[in-house]
Amino acid sequence: MPSYLMVRPFACALLGLLVFGMPLTAQAASTVFSINADGIKEVTAGGTPGQGDLDGTAIGTLTLDNGTGVGTTGSATFNITLANLDLTSLTGHHIHQAVATTTGGIVLDFGDPDTIRSGSVLSGTITGLSATVVTAVLGNPPGFYYNVHNGSFPSGAVRDQLSVPEPAASALLLIGAVTLFGRRRRSEAPLAA
Asked: Within the chain, where are the H helices?
């Protein structure tokens, strides 16, 4: 058997890990999501947009980590700047389960935003989250959304659907290298007589 064929299963597993950002086993996983929440994305259960604070925003990153993959070892790390929102009456921020065209129940509650707020920035880590729920969110980000609530908008001031991050440039370079290596090894294989 040619040696390049022996490399193929390893290369495919590595490619899957890099492209999909998933571990090869159901263990620890972490993903950084870009958050670009606004009031236009707040919808009614029937999908009518623009139900939140129309000039409000929450922009930054949210990192979800499922810890060890079991128990309450999950965490969420925030670096989000709030703008044009009533910061004196923040009542909550969390992940809901629902697609972009409807509303859904809270699955990850991060508690009082003021515990990690300094001025207009949410910055810090919330621990003790359900690793199972975090794993579910990481497995289907478009089925979940992040939002911030305040007294003026108790149903949600700003919202953003989670989405799968783009593969990092270094991951794309590695994919290219694996592909070229496979092609080069194939071209060096002796031809059958």
From this structure: 3-20, 131-139, 169-188
148 strand-pairing partners = 93, 158
How many other C-beta atoms are found inside a 10 Å radius of the C-beta of residue 136?
16
Q: What is the mean pLDDT of each run of 10 residues along the chain (193 residues)?
A: 49 47 60 97 96 97 96 97 96 97 97 96 97 96 97 96 71 54 54 56
| Pairing mode of beta strands 153-161, 106-109 | unpaired
Residues facing 124 on adjacent strands = 78
Integer-rounded Cα Rg, in Å, for the chain is 21
**Which distant-in-sequence residues (6+ apart) come within 8 Å of 55 by Cβ?**
39, 84
List the chain domain ranges: 1-21+167-193, 23-164
3-class SS string, 62-87: EEEECCCCCCCCEEEEEEEEEECCCH
Residues 187, 4: Cα–Cα separation, whole Å: 10
Q: How far is CA 60 from the centre of its chain?
A: 12
| Angle formed at CA 120 by CA 158 and CA 111, multiple of 5 degrees | 60
Note the helical H segments in 57-168. Answer: 131-139
Map tokens 């515990």 to a residue. Answer: 115
The CA distance from 121 to 78, in Å, is 9
**Domain spanning 23-164, CATH architecture:** Sandwich (2.60)
